[in-house]
């Protein structure tokens, strides 16, 4: 990742819900911030619309997770629920195509967190700036957020 | 592009082709199933990745966004 120093990456909430620390996500890879720093969001009930957290290219798109890479090369991973790859897309509807240019706030996926929970999986959604050092996210939101509201920032050292 | 060397090194860290039952790329991590977890060289895998999570015979290697390509490369080596 080669982000210009002093130019913060601003990541907005990809969906509505309650902000959760990554350390409380029931998955060692996210809770140890192996993939990067960020926050997670626990969605409420009912179908959740998930939007792009930054503007950029939809570099990876699976029903249960996607990555948007900004023009500066910052990759933001949004993972919808934990171990949801095993659902093979059930409960998820994709509204974009891998490789698309997206603006922040543009719909990418809708999914049903209650279906995820009904399979004894966590519906919590980690939002991670890939390769950012653990605990390096700043301006961290707390409490309830709506999709599109500021979630966290990150500035190159 | 994932390079074949990295796939081969990760495969060696997993105990070699004979020890790997299954490998699947999932966005940023390789989810693998091995026959004998004691043959997995976690220290070597950590040097090749962002982290390793071992749970019984399930070994996850966090390789970053090239996971799908590395998984394909490893499958070619099995």
TrEMBL record, chain A:
Main location: cytoplasm
Compartments, as annotated in UniProt: Cytoplasm
Keyword presence, Kinase: yes
Keywords: Kinase, Phosphotransferase system, Sugar transport, Transferase, Transport
Pfam families: PTS_EIIA_1
Domain of life (superkingdom): Bacteria
Signal peptide: none
Keyword Transferase: yes
Span of domain PTS EIIA type-1: 27-131
GO cellular component terms attached to this protein's record: cytoplasm
Molecular function GO labels: kinase activity
Protein name: PTS system N-acetylglucosamine-specific IIA component (Glc family)
Organism: Pseudonocardia sediminis
UniProt record, GO biological process: phosphoenolpyruvate-dependent sugar phosphotransferase system
UniProtKB/TrEMBL annotation, chain B:
Catalytic residue list: 26 (phosphocysteine intermediate)
UniProt KW Nucleus keyword: no
UniProt xrefs under PROSITE patterns: PTS_EIIB_TYPE_1 (PS51098)
Gene Ontology terms: cellular component: plasma membrane
GO biological process: N-acetylglucosamine transport; phosphoenolpyruvate-dependent sugar phosphotransferase system
Database matches in InterPro entries: Glu_permease_IIB, PTrfase_EIIB_Cys, PTS_Glucose_EIICBA, PTS_IIB_1
Protein name: PTS system N-acetylglucosamine-specific IIB component (Glc family)
Organism listed in the record: Pseudonocardia sediminis
């Amino acid at each position: 990742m080669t982000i210009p120093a002093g130019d913060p990456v601003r990541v907005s909430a990809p969906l509505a819900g309650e902000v959760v620390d990554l350390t409380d996500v029931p998955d060692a890879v996210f809770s140890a911030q192996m993939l990067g720093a960020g926050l997670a969001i626990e969605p409420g009930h009912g179908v959740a619309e998930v939007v792009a957290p930054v503007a950029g290219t939809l570099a990876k798109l699976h029903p249960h997770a996607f990555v948007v890479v900004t023009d500066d090369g910052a990759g933001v991973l949004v993972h919808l629920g934990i171990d949801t790859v095993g659902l093979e897309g059930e409960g998820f509807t994709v509204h974009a195509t891998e490789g698309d240019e997206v603006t922040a706030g543009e719909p990418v996926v809708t999914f049903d967190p209650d279906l995820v929970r009904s399979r004894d999986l966590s519906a919590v959604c980690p939002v991670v700036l890939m390769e950012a050092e653990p605990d390096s996210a700043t301006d961290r939101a707390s409490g309830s957020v709506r999709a599109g509201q500021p979630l966290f920032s990150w500035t190159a050292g | 592009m994932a390079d074949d060397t990295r796939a081969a090194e990760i495969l060696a860290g997993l105990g070699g082709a004979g020890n790997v039952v299954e490998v699947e790329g999932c966005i940023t991590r390789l989810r693998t199933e091995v026959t004998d977890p004691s043959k997995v060289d976690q220290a070597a895998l950590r040097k090749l990745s962002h982290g390793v999570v071992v749970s019984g015979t399930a070994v996850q290697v966090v390789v970053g966004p090239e996971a799908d390509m590395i998984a394909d490369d490893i499958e070619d080596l099995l």
